[in-house]
Design brief:
Four Helix Bundle (Hemerythrin (Met), subunit A); 2 domains; alpha/beta; 4-stranded mixed sheet; globular; homodimer
Chain lengths: ~350, ~350
């Protein structure tokens, strides 16, 4: 994707460390960070300089390869990286892909690159499948940031939007600001602006009203983890959008690569929900009149906050899951079918018949 | 109610003008404004220095009496004040109560005082009736600010909370911050803190999650206008809380005096929804490290926003309406019953039989 007209990735490997666009500085500045050891990789994930479930997986994969390159103890590195955040499954899939290639650092780096490339291909395929949900002028509501800042090069929820824009369908996007961290207002609005896609930012509370008034044709979000039955954990606020979409017959799709689906988890009730620091709710960061990035407190001094970072949308509210192997129902069956298709696609000779999900 | 231990009203008349706590400065500073003519009264409502449907009614009532006192043209004053905001019915009920006493300025002021006193009595009665919804330790979720800053002395949604606290029931309040203007984070949190009621602030998006997780016993909000069938317009975001409460069998009550009920409007679809300036969404106001009140921009430069200020909750999602004459069903019948009770109460000899709503 483009930043001021230049092609750019959000995370990339180089011999002096792993480079990343620091998402805490956006949209005010495009700031490039470099993580030079495992601890710096872990910290960048914890403070959400690098964020978005699939991107965390890619970044952790490179981080684990970096640990090998630096001669660090691999078990300790794995433990440090895997403990950074609790909800996104991709964190472990990224680490595991690289661990399977241990101990040769060059082979591990190749595994990280392959994991990265596969993620990009999956995201683009999600875009292609999701494009079928669009007509000319489709008005889509999204939440948080599931664009190319969260998933290398294409995004998940935004991948179909970018495909639709390139196909000349002129999509329109309602961007919910996504308190407390404002990933919608800061990141999604920035991405859409750089790509020239028409959009408007709304307060999170306005989503249900716009759906009720018939102003939204499609709700499309990403996911941090999907259970085997199709229940989906995503950024806090996703669930209330799904309730509103269901109440008004508006289709609600989750866009997620298979790497986000955790078949070891039966239902969404088992997905751990991260509680983040209360300061994220008590304060807001933005730029003041002088252009400086400042954090302001919006509550009385001493006020306490509660800050659950994700919620779980039950599968019955999800019209379908847009994956890299097609759009499948949010159900045990639909998800089994998706994995069957993926297995078939990787089998020599194409579609086999041996796999029964 | 108390501010730093001192009894205080939020709006009061004096001979040099109408005094008010400027709600834009809270919770950082308790700043007293004075509106000395009709234009200053109108501006204070428009910029939301004075806000909350019932309080707008009281303030406009005093403002109209002030116009008479100053010898201003009454028709022009009525037009100016009634055009300040479009959603709250109380604006007109306050003005009409004073207009009925025209043209004698002293009689008009007495009418404004009577309207104010009646509002305080109604709010306290709402508290008394709403108290029946509380047990020991009830966890209530509210939205925006429907406390004594919005309704003289007691509030509507918060009146039962204050009654419960004084009855030793130790209520706990989830305060949704209420973007874009953050009336929950700034005003409700401040009120509850001053009154010593346990509470925690949450991002608006967290409400449905807490309801889903069984952490909320009761949802209680105010209303800006209620239609004859029980549909209720209130601060944007109320509707999604009602959807979540309904999905999980949590009772959802609207607390509103009869002056908020517009029997001339059949359903909520007819209630005009105010669109407010997009800067409210694009920016956030708070205090920086030095304690100064600053406004920061949270979106990329040039980003557009949409800012509907209210939404309509359909009556079928409302468990009941807490009024000054008791809790009634949110339906044509329930509302007719409430007005019948009110008419009976004002008739000499108590309950009459002639009124059939």
């Amino acid at each position: 994707m483009k930043v001021r007209g230049q092609d750019m990735r959000v995370v990339w490997w180089s011999d002096d460390g792993i480079h990343y666009i620091d998402q805490r500085a956006l949209p005010m500045r495009v700031e490039i960070g470099v993580a030079r050891d495992v601890e710096e990789v872990a910290r960048a994930i914890e403070v959400m300089a690098v964020r978005g479930a699939p991107l965390i997986g890619v970044f952790a994969a490179y981080g684990f390869a970096l640990a090998a390159r630096r001669g660090a103890a691999l078990d300790a590195a794995y433990a440090r990286l895997s403990g950074t955040r609790p909800t996104a499954l991709n964190l472990w899939s990224g680490l595991d892909a690289v661990r399977a290639a241990a101990p040769n650092p060059c082979v591990m780096l190749a595994a990280a690159r392959a994991y990265d490339d596969a993620g990009i291909a999956a995201a683009e395929a999600i875009g292609t499948h999701g494009l079928t949900l669009f007509r000319h002028g489709t008005r889509v509501l999204t939440h948080c940031n599931a664009g190319w800042l969260a998933v290398q090069d294409w995004g998940t929820a935004l991948a179909p939007v970018y495909k639709a824009a390139r196909a000349g369908l002129e999509p329109f996007v309602y961007v919910s600001e996504t308190r407390p961290r404002l990933q919608g207002a800061r990141l999604t609005a920035w991405e859409l602006r750089e790509e020239g896609v028409a959009h408007v930012v709304i307060a999170d509370s306005a989503a249900a009203h716009l759906i009720q008034r018939g102003q939204v044709d499609l709700v499309l979000t990403g996911a941090d983890r999907v259970a085997a039955n199709g229940d989906a954990a995503n950024k806090i606020g996703t669930y209330s959008r799904a309730l509103a979409a269901s109440a008004h017959g508006v289709p609600f799709y989750v866009a997620a690569p298979l790497s986000t689906i955790d078949r070891a988890i039966t239902t969404g009730a088992e997905i751990p929900i991260e509680e983040r620091p209360e300061d994220e709710v008590l304060t807001v960061e933005g730029v003041d009149d002088s252009g400086a990035l400042v954090r302001v407190r919006v509550t009385p001094a001493g006020t306490k906050a509660l800050n659950p970072a994700f919620d779980v949308t039950p599968h019955r509210l999800i019209t379908g899951i847009v994956t890299e192997v097609g759009i499948v129902p949010a159900s045990d069956r639909g998800i089994a079918e998706a994995f069957r298709r993926a297995a078939d696609a990787t089998r020599p000779g194409g579609r086999g018949g041996a796999t029964r999900g």
